[in-house]
Design goal:
Elements: H1 2-22, H2 30-42, H3 73-94, H4 106-122, H5 133-147, H6 152-173
Helix pairs in contact: 2-4, 2-6, 3-4, 3-6, 5-6
The chain binds 2-acetamido-2-deoxy-beta-D-glucopyranose (NAG) (2 copies).
The site of one 2-acetamido-2-deoxy-beta-D-glucopyranose (NAG) has 7 residues, from helix 5.
């Protein structure tokens, strides 16, 4: 009897291990994305009214994110890719020195960067997902605004607003596409 239960336990452990191996490592941890969202939200105030004119040039292509919550793995991959790519591109901007006049809380910005970096490592294999042209068009528009004399602050604010939207929408609409374990999945693979 003892032996049988021992065998059963072993079998269970084995099948759990097998499942863990079978899960693709190309995933993003939902908790980390959520923390990154909160850091980004809390590092500054709401979008300044004085920056509204920048919306003509910077408006996130919301259609890039698959609309409905769905168990479809392709939709999941696309959604995670949009999160990954947006974080990656925004990260390149946020690496620069803050433009004069932008009063973001540095400690929270550093913590955001740290989480962002972690997600970049974790989701590395997402970079191979077929991209959408519309997203690169968006980011070149952002860059154009950032390079314009006097509009950098609003460019940063608009990028932060849009990135918050991306993270929040993805977490809500594609909740099941993220991993929600307490442990970060392995980054290799
Ligand atoms: C980028 O800007 C161009 C010109 O202002 C505009 O036609 C295009 O729709 C913008 N792209 C995105 C994704 O916002
Ligand atoms: C916004 O886009 C228009 C047309 O593409 C351009 O002429 C203008 O300089 C841009 N404004 C900023 C702040 O980049």
């Amino acid at each position: 009897m003892m032996l049988v239960s021992l065998l059963l336990i072993l079998l269970q452990v084995c099948s759990q291990l097998m499942t863990a191996v079978a899960i693709p490592t190309c995933l993003l941890n939902g908790h980390v994305v959520q923390s990154a969202h909160h850091m980004l939200r809390d590092l500054g105030g709401s979008f300044p009214v004085s920056c509204l004119p920048v919306n003509i040039n910077i408006s996130f292509p919301s259609s890039a994110l698959p609309a409905a919550a769905s168990a479809n793995p392709l939709q999941c991959r696309k959604a995670l890719w949009v999160v990954y790519e947006s974080l990656q591109e925004a990260g390149l901007v946020f690496e620069e020195d803050l433009p004069a006049g932008l009063t973001w809380r540095d400690e929270k910005l550093q913590r955001f960067r740290h989480l962002q970096f972690r997600l970049m490592e974790e989701g590395q294999c997402l970079s191979g997902v077929d991209g959408s042209v519309v997203l690169s068009s968006y980011f070149s528009n952002v860059t154009a605004v950032l390079e314009q004399q006097g509009s950098a602050v609003c460019g940063w604010e608009a990028l932060r607003r849009d990135l918050l939207w991306v993270l929040k929408s993805a977490l809500h609409q594609h909740h099941n596409c993220f991993t929600w374990g307490t442990k970060t999945p392995p980054t290799s693979g």
